[in-house]
Amino acid sequence: MLRQAQHDSLNLPSLLLKTFEHKKTQLYLVLSGIFIVNALLAEIIGVKIFSLEPLIGRPDNLTAGVLIWPVVFVTTDIINEYFGKEGVLRVSYLTAGLILFAFLIIYATTKLPPAAFWLEVNGKDPLGQPINIDFAYQMIFRQGMGIIAGSLTAFAIGQVLDATVFQLLRRATKGRYIWLRATGSTLVSQLVDSFVVLYVAFYLFGNWSFDQVLSVANTNYWYKFAAAIVLTPVLYLAHFLIDRYLGKEETAELQQEAAADVSV
């Protein structure tokens, strides 16, 4: 019994290390899952432009995808805080590949010949007006082909900017003021992202005027600006929960490793 106790005590540091590594891996998987799902959803629903006029009394418009995009950049900041720029770019490249794969599959389905009964049973809207459900399907999803070109371009530029500015502000403030590096990196990256995605998707590949691009991009950006401010408490809540999950000493060590990311 004594020998077993001595053996267990000698292996305790190794067991604690394994537990920490497991928790760290689980944390990265959960954050990556949240990031990927919301980024993919934002791309798919981004084809819809909706009006804010009923809400604010002004004829401003937003893309539907921008509604959940704040979740993506908040998750980006949390990943950056604990896994550094390399951790952000790793999941960003994976997400870009998955978005491309998803849209290739969607595009392929628009080429499939529609079943006659499917066209028939969906041949009228609730008011009895005739519709072509296959044409509607193609129109919605093929519109996303331009969006994917714009989104992947903007996504790549925006994520690199976000990750880089976050780490630069982190070093400039010596690890203090998480709200500053999180909000600052988001505001810089989304200024570029908001314009690039709409310009490529709807101006180069679509039928929008340049003024329409500027108008919607401006509204999108200010929405993201407001969301970045409003969601700042979420960052502090995430820090609190992660500190409890990993342990304060382990969390501090992980943050130091992230801050020392040599790729910045």
UniProtKB/TrEMBL annotation:
Organism, as annotated: Hymenobacter daecheongensis DSM 21074
Residue spans crossing the bilayer: 27-50, 62-79, 91-110, 145-166, 178-202, 222-242
Keyword Transmembrane: yes
Stated family: Belongs to the vitamin uptake transporter (VUT/ECF) (TC 2.A.88) family. Q precursor transporter subfamily.
InterPro entries according to UniProt: YhhQ
Subcellular location: Cell membrane
Mode of membrane association: Multi-pass membrane protein
Protein name: Probable queuosine precursor transporter
Purpose of the protein: Involved in the import of queuosine (Q) precursors, required for Q precursor salvage.
Molecular function as annotated in GO: transmembrane transporter activity
Pfam families: Vut_1
Native organism taxonomy: Bacteria, Pseudomonadati, Bacteroidota, Cytophagia, Cytophagales
Gene Ontology CC entries for this record: plasma membrane
Keywords on record: Cell membrane, Membrane, Transmembrane, Transmembrane helix, Transport
